[in-house]
From TrEMBL:
Pfam families: Amidohydro_1. Binds 1 zinc ion per subunit. Residues 58-406 form the Amidohydrolase-related domain. It is an enzyme of class 3 (hydrolase). Its cofactor is Zn(2+). Zn(2+) binds at residues 66, 68, 215, 304. The gene is mtaD. Belongs to the metallo-dependent hydrolases superfamily. MTA/SAH deaminase family. Substrate binds at residues 95, 148, 188, 218, 304. This is 5-methylthioadenosine/S-adenosylhomocysteine deaminase. The lineage of its organism: Bacteria, Bacillati, Bacillota, Bacilli, Bacillales.
Amino acid sequence: MDTLIKNATIVTMNEEKELLRTGYVLIKDGRFIEVEAGEPQAPLLEGVDVIDANGKWLMPGLVNTHGHTGMSLLRGINDDLPLNQWLEDKIWPIEKKLTPEAVQAARRLAMVEMIESGTTSFLDMYHLQMPEFAEEVAQVGLRATLMRSVIGLCSREEQDEKLAESIQLAEQFRGSGNGRIQTMLAPHAPYTCPPDYIERIVDAARERSLPVHMHLAETRKEINDYLTEHGMHPLELLEERDLLSGTEWLFAHGVHMHEQHFELLEKHNAAISHNPKSNLKLGAGIAPVASMLKHDLTVALGTDSVASNNALDLFEEMRFAVLLQRGINEQANMVETYEGLEMATISGAKALRYHDVGSIKVGNQADFILISAEQAHLHPKTDVLSHLVFAAKGSDVTDSFVQGKALMRNRNILTLDKEKILAEANQQLLLLQK
Ligand SMILES: [Zn+2]
């Protein structure tokens, strides 16, 4: 049945940056067929499922462009180490012990957290049980871009095996779940994948028109080690080997980059997933986002995993992204309020190469959330955009829809059993720690 949502304040994020103080949307076959200001005429209400938003704010669902949901049981496992030590001493040893049940519990926990905090699309980069996850995400109803990431610190045979698995996943699930599942290839990082291996992955991506995702320039150590070993920044090496052209890149982090690197990214239409909280927590630094935006790069937001965040709340990420740039540049409009919202919505969709997601407009997929403005921190209710960027929390989200289908109504998750999932997450962590 078609759905009509009326009496909402609509933050469209469309090209005209329209905000409809009171408006309605009509959804048919998972897409918006009307987005209008005012009250719907009586005939429109016949034969449709009518939801009265009661003045709630309706906006595009948030897009998380970098994460590893399979690591969600590692939240709080270690909070005070730098990236290399954190990975080598804490994360990788525990990951070796992860059972399929633990990974599944972690992912379900992450999906609950994402739905509850307004994320409707997410990128997941991981090496364990990706086909099983693709099937489960399709069932749950979230939109996702999935990839089996590879680490190339192994024999050529093992590298090839891992790449074959990545390609298999990408081809099998691309467009599944009624188009909600998309795929990429994903070398883990320049420091874990030798250049020849990245080249083979990029070739495979070009042949299949798949985008490529990789961690890049996350820490100063990564850059210094690369300079010692290869005599240049990893992005420059990608350019020297002609690996930036002919495929759509999305890089996570990009903390340690300079003017010449933004020019390369611009030249190749590469996008950046900015993960401010993860970068701060691991002491990696602050990405030069204001400079990236001046170059008209697509800068989107990511949480990274909860082992380095420790939450999947994109409202926090949006706020950190804006405030950090103002602080380090000592300028109050450096990254404007609206740009923060763009990073969390339409730019996220662009970074994941979605063409009909990320704004509330006719013809687009009906991925959206409703936010209750009843809490004191969102009063007076006047300046919606300001409140969304500087005051709102994930827990203000009351309803979540993807392709017009409700995943959460009035804070109740409809497609996952939250209570059971929370219990299972605790139980699985205890088993891991035995
Ligand atoms: Zn990551």
